[in-house]
Amino acid sequence: MRQHRSFTISNPFAYKRALLEWSRTFQKVLWLDGNEHISKYSSFDFLMAVGEQTGKSVSFDSLNQLKNFVGKNQDWLFGFFSYDLKNELEDLTSQNLDGLDFPVLHFFQPAKIIKCNGEKLHFLYLDDCADDIDGDHTQISTMMDLEENNEVHNPIKIKMRIHKDAYFEKTNKLLEHIHRGDVYEANFCQEFYAEDVSIDPWETYKRLNAISEPPFAAFMRLNDKYLMCASPERYLRKEGTTLISQPIKGTARRDENETEDHFLKEQLAQDEKERAENIMITDLVRNDLSKSALKGSVRVEELCEVYTYKQVHQLISTVLAQIPTAKNPVELIEETFPMGSMTGAPKISAMKIIEELEETKRGLYSGALGYFDPKGNFDFNVVIRSILYNANKNYVSFSVGSAITAKSDPEREYQECLLKAKAMRSVLETGG
Q1: Any domain includes 415
Q2: Does the annotation mark 249 as catalytic?
Q3: What domain range includes position 8?
């Protein structure tokens, strides 16, 4: 059981900064930040989960364990599904290089949860550590007055796993598959990496997040493994009997000139190729949700809406469905994972082809990170625009991709990848 205490704070931004700093002492940390993007499907401004501090909390590394725990009013679980969970869900394999060694999935029951809505803080602590609430709140409040660390790492030289000529060759192979009818869209990704490096994950995350301030930002520590995530994309949310998925397909750069920026936004909204990408994936998501949805309940609430972030404009669609009350929440993940925007269509064919062409295992990249609540509701992002770090191996990595369709120009797709890589690359190569 958990104890619940609430506090009022006058400066949520400063408290948020202090809360991140406070989390450094924990071996398991999961941080979710909406960056003040308020929508009808938001449920908090920011949320911190840390653990495990008691012998009674649990962790899971398999789908069957999750199924037996989630949705039975037991407790909160925080964690992730890596992209390679696909190999357990379908007849697929991955033999590509993996420099990061993240588990396929991991969820933990946090000892301490701190959630913020507006100026209201909610502390949800397991009974065994409930006596820490007042002390923790005082400690975090005291840290609000500390100066920013601003520690930078040495500039890191980033290497490309797939160089430009090889990228063009692989993209043309993908186009051959498309022209043969094997797939009609595939999301092809490439890795950027550095070896024998050391970074401060907390400072790296703060700098990455500050560049784009997206609605599904996240930070995770799992012992010696770290995720610094600036994702703009929701994979799947369950609220009662409603499912919400918000695929992104279609990207345009921002411009400092207001007139030019508006032109780029309007151009994206009307771009035939970008809209076709989005509509194809929206249709795939509709199909995924229909596996469990009540008949006739799947609907597209938004189609190809332009959302504007600090670095880019994006085309986003919103798909809703109603599901039976008795449905196990984990089965909804099994039926829809991975997110269609990160695979292509038809989904399984696309995953087989991109596995052959990509050079590395995606791991947590293009997987999903989030939480299950005690009622079986959940919310997961898509792990994109993210830096991954294995501190034990001194290996840092980020990946980017773009959707290849029959109308794709390899040069344009390559430039889109570089645009998406810009934030991660600048954070690492400039030392922050």
Answers
A1: yes
A2: yes
A3: 2-232+319-429
User: Residue 397: which of 192, 98, 154 has the closest Cα?
Assistant: 192
Q: Does some domain include residue 103?
A: yes
pLDDT (tens digit, 9 = 90+) per residue, 317-372?
A: 999 999 999 999 999 999 999 999 999 999 999 999 999 999 999 999 999 999 99
Collapsing DSSP to helix, strand or coil, 394 comes out as coil
Under the banding of pLDDT at 50, 70 and 90, the label for residue 152 is low
- For strand 242-246 and strand 248-253, is the pairing parallel, antiparallel, or unpaired? unpaired
Q: Within 13 A of 82's CA, how many CA atoms are on the CB side?
A: 20
Burial pattern 38-69, b for ≥16 Cβ within 10 A else e, equals eeebeeebbbbbbbbbeeebebbeebeebbeb
Element of type H or E holding 86: helix 86-89
Instruction: Name, in order, each residue with C-beta under 8 angstroms of 114's C-beta and a sequence gap of 6 or more.
Output: 19, 47, 48, 121, 122, 123, 124, 136
26 within some domain: yes
Task: Give me the number of domains the chain comprises.
Answer: 1
Q: Would you say residue 221 lies in a domain?
A: yes
What is the rounded distance in angstroms from the CA atom of residue 320 to the CA atom of residue 302? 10
Q: How far apart are CA 369 and CA 32, in angstroms?
A: 9
Q: DSSP label at 208?
A: H
C-beta separation of 54 from 128 below 8 A: yes
Domain with residue 420: its CATH number is 3.60.120.10
Angstrom distance (rounded) from CA 424 to CA 432: 10
pLDDT band at 9 (very low <50, low <70, confident <90, very high): very high
- Out of 52, 233, 358, 413, pick the active-site residue: 233
pLDDT score for 386: 98
Beta-ladder partners of 391 = none
Active-site residue, 233 included: yes
DSSP assigned state of 360: B
Omega into 176 within 30° of 0, i.e. cis?
Answer: no
Q: What is the pLDDT of residues 205-255, one digit of tens each?
A: 999 999 989 999 999 999 999 999 999 999 999 999 999 999 999 989 999
Q: How confident is the model at residue 149 (pLDDT cuts 50, 70, 90)?
A: low
Active-site hit among 225, 249, 347, 420: 249
